[in-house]
Write a structure and sequence with these properties.
Diaminopimelate Epimerase, Chain A, domain 1; Urease, subunit C, domain 1; 542 residues; single chain; alpha/beta; 25 strands; disordered N terminus; nine-stranded mixed sheet; six-stranded mixed sheet
């Protein structure tokens, strides 16, 4: 790495300002610029929300700033970007039932009882249960819910968001009976009887029938999610699937300076959304970027909805299913390519990844820099990885590997698991990877993303030695994946993702340097401050 003192002289003559006035100087810091050379610096200068100088301590003598901050050597990084999350839904979940970490269905039922006692007359909505972590690893059924809560509306999602457990009251409301069949989804039955479990598209009638959150509740959800993101050092979130109404709400709240966090909003793949945005075109403001469409190819591995080339190892005769039929994926890819929109497709299983990659390759023959994305790219065979390259970016969530590794081999078998969560291999083929969390499926913290990418273990250091360590990322690769490479995947690398002159002054200050400390300390590192556009939006309590 070049020394910061060698950097300062070349930065200072590119400013284009008529005076050396500034808003903020941060100095005596350990700054990771994440520029092309991965240079280090000790000081930076901000004016009008952008970096105007980056270099050494001599900047203190060259600028007169309203605020000067001596960081006493604390590390500074570009504001973290979560390249795949569900920001809006995460906000809604803050007022719903959190079932993450439950150890049994009995515990789930107990939490439902507690929620009803404190939220009388409110539908019981929630997320987070995972039967793979229970002693009984079968899907729960609705019988106990029907007995204990016959008059309540109960709809609780599995942790991955691809399976939903509801009681009979909700089935009746949604018009789902023992004859209901839904393309791209599964109404789970046992001996012909409804269990209350709905997978993928089979969940749609439930959400169409349940009461919608009010505009006020939606606003509160976005603000609650923003607060938590700022606490974790996030300055940009890529929300993987929003409807027109939600995108317009975010834009309005931005315009009114009520919401500040930057949002890369992927348009949910519905006929209404597509008709509107393909006619309107891309939307880009200072804090909102709408130029991509989120598509679901298949379901999730945990709910056995991921589309595989061969049967599930623990469920013979089942190869999962496509949420969006392959012919529709092909035709949509053609439409989006012709209209200049990015296509970001959820693909988990090896069959789904193959079909999506093949559709991408066909549609992108004349597009030079489309940056289309495969969201998750979880199981990709070695022969199919060659489809990746500069035109197709893997958008991956490292904590999925460390959450799934205790049961994924049961789904895939010992041989097929070797092609799963292959992040280093995907990076080698593509040249860049965008890192996210998929929160609320996983924890919102980008530091846990960084840790999982590098260590490939749980925070309890399991398994010993790490999970398939040949696919671990280096620390510089992981940092780039949640800064400059994520910005590139959003077509925003010219305005964010690194600490360079002319870019927006989005920063995160940590208590310890994640590039140097023992890897097992990383998940618990404290965020001291988050800075957006040169303004402090979060400061750790003293």
């Amino acid at each position: 790495m070049k020394k910061a003192t060698l950097l300062s002289f070349c930065f200072l003559f590119l400013i284009g300002c008529t005076s050396n006035d500034a808003d903020l100087i941060i100095h005596n810091a350990d700054i990771y610029t994440v520029n092309k050379e991965f240079d280090k610096a000790t000081a930076l200068v901000v004016k009008n929300g952008k970096f105007i100088a980056v270099g050494g301590e001599d900047l203190l003598e060259m600028y007169d700033a309203k605020s000067v901050v001596d960081l006493n050597g604390f590390p500074v990084y570009p504001g973290f970007i979560d390249a795949h999350c569900h920001f809006y839904n995460f906000g809604l979940l803050q007022e719903q039932l959190d079932l993450s970490g439950t150890k049994s269905f009995d515990e789930v039922v107990e939490k439902i009882s507690e929620y009803i006692a404190t939220h009388p007359g409110v539908p019981v909505l929630g997320q987070g249960w995972d039967q793979n972590t229970w002693e009984v690893k079968e899907y729960p059924t609705k019988e106990i819910l029907d007995q204990k809560f016959p008059t309540e509306l109960i709809a609780i999602k599995r942790v991955d968001g691809h399976a939903l457990l509801v009681n009979q009251k909700v089935l009746d409301l949604a018009g789902i009976d023992d004859k209901t069949e839904i393309e791209g989804g599964v109404v789970v039955r046992v001996k012909g009887a409804l269990t209350g479990v709905l997978i993928d598209n089979a969940m749609d009638p439930v959400y169409a029938a349940l009461p919608k959150p009010t505009v006020k509740q939606q606003e509160q959800a976005l603000l609650a999610a923003q607060e938590i993101c700022f606490q974790n050092g996030l300055t940009t979130v890529d929300d993987a699937g929003l409807d027109k109404e939600q995108l317009e709400l975010i834009e309005r709240l931005h315009e009114e300076d009520i919401l500040n966090i930057r949002v890369y909003g992927m348009i949910s793949n519905t006929p209404q959304n597509l008709e509107y945005y393909l006619k309107k075109g891309k939307v880009q403001t200072e804090r909102l970027n709408i130029r991509s469409v989120k598509v679901y190819a298949d379901g999730a591995l945990g709910s056995r909805g991921a589309a595989l080339k061969e049967d599930y190892s623990d469920d013979h005769g089942n190869r999962g299913s496509y949420v969006t039929p392959v012919d529709e994926i092909i035709s949509l890819a053609d439409v989006l390519a012709k209209n200049g929109f990015q296509m970001n497709t959820h693909a988990i299983g090896d069959a789904a990844n193959y079909e999506v990659l093949k559709a991408y390759k066909k549609a992108l023959t004349t597009n030079e820099d489309p940056r289309w994305r495969i969201e998750h790219a979880q199981v990709v065979t070695k022969e199919d990885r060659q489809f990746f390259g500069s035109k197709i970016i893997p958008s991956i969530q490292p904590t999925h590997a460390t959450s799934d590794m205790f049961w994924a081999d049961e789904r895939l078998g010992k041989e097929r698991i070797q092609g799963a969560y292959a992040y280093k291999s995907l990076l080698d083929w593509s040249g860049k990877v965008a890192l996210g969390t998929d929160f609320p499926v996983e924890h919102v913290s980008p530091l846990k993303t960084f840790f999982a990418a590098v260590a490939r273990t749980t925070e309890n250091q399991l398994p010993e030695g790490g999970f398939q360590m040949e696919d671990a990322l280096t620390r510089p690769e992981a940092l780039k994946g949640m800064t400059i490479w994520a910005a590139h995947a959003n077509f925003e690398e010219e305005i964010k993702g690194s600490i360079e002159i002319g870019k927006v002054a989005d920063l995160v200050i940590l208590k310890k340097d994640i590039m140097k400390i023992d890897v097992n300390e990383i998940p618990d590192v404290e965020v001291l401050a988050t800075i957006l556009n040169g303004d402090m939006v979060y400061r750790a309590p003293k």
